[in-house]
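dumping this here so i dont lose it
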């Protein structure tokens, strides 16, 4: 069987199973097994597929069809144009989180040497993306999971920014040693019932009955964590913007509050900025 023929079969199996982005996932799975980049893969579609690799592709495809996310099968995921090592101890980075990174970069680029805290860093995708694009910044990355921090450190080493990120084990803002200029977070915001059967770690997904338990705790922990003129940026789920804005307003009574929409028009980030009053 040729590589292109195998690709067509995997695409069909994924599509029939209702997998979103079936064509892309089929290609990524095959490229992982064949160890080919996108260009080389396309140039080799007419090549015969070795039987050993054909069996491995079939086995991994069956694993994907059983419900295991592709990123946990291949052990990697692209985020903000970068490749990260991923395992089941962390949430799989989502494209919508890139809006959080973009807004942070836009703001931080106007600062001389900002201190930025990524709360609940997981794989380290956000912190590392910021470190690579903000050479003048110092980054703190916190997480309550030792396994997540171990993986984040590995990713930081691979992207050669480990020396510019301080990894801190602990709950939300508690480990931060000093106030920061920007505090950003992609915390659990999924309702408990909606993530009950998810293969991803519930610690990184489950936001409680209404999805806002962890965000509420973060807002309650902001006292003394921001410098004058500091910013908070929080990723949220669909329909949560008004409640999160109220939580942030209560935590930062003198702050400007706003939201940012994603490409689908969904309010995806709530932000707050305090003026010259240190809280």
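and the seq i came up w/
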């Amino acid at each position: 069987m040729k590589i292109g023929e195998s690709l067509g079969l995997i695409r069909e199996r994924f599509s029939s199973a209702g997998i979103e982005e079936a064509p892309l996932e089929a290609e990524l799975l095959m490229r992982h097994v064949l160890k080919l980049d996108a260009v080389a893969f396309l140039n080799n579609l007419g090549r015969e597929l070795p039987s050993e690799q054909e069996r491995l592709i079939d086995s991994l495809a069956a694993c994907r069809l059983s419900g295991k996310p592709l990123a946990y099968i291949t052990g990697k995921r692209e985020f903000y144009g970068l490749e990260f090592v991923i395992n089941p101890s962390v949430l799989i980075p989502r494209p919508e989180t890139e809006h959080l990174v973009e807004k942070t970069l836009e703001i931080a680029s106007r600062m001389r040497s900002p201190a930025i805290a990524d709360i609940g860093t997981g794989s380290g995708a956000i912190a590392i993306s910021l470190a690579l694009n903000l050479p003048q910044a110092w980054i703190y990355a916190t997480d309550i999971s030792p396994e997540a921090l171990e993986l984040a450190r590995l990713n930081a080493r691979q992207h050669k920014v480990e020396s510019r990120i301080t990894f801190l084990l602990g709950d939300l803002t508690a480990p931060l040693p000093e106030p920061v200029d920007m505090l950003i977070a992609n915390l659990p915001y999924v309702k408990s019932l909606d993530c009950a059967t998810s293969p991803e770690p519930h610690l990184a997904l489950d936001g409680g009955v209404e999805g806002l338990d962890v965000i509420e705790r973060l807002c309650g922990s902001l006292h003394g964590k921001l410098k004058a003129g500091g910013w908070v940026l929080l990723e949220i789920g669909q329909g949560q913007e008004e409640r999160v804005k109220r939580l942030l307003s209560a935590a930062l009574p003198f702050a400007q509050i706003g939201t940012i929409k994603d490409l689908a028009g969904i309010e995806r980030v709530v932000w707050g900025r305090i003026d010259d009053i240190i809280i």
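Strands lie at 76-79, 82-85, 115-119, 138-143, 165-169, 180-185, 226-235, 256-261, 267-273.
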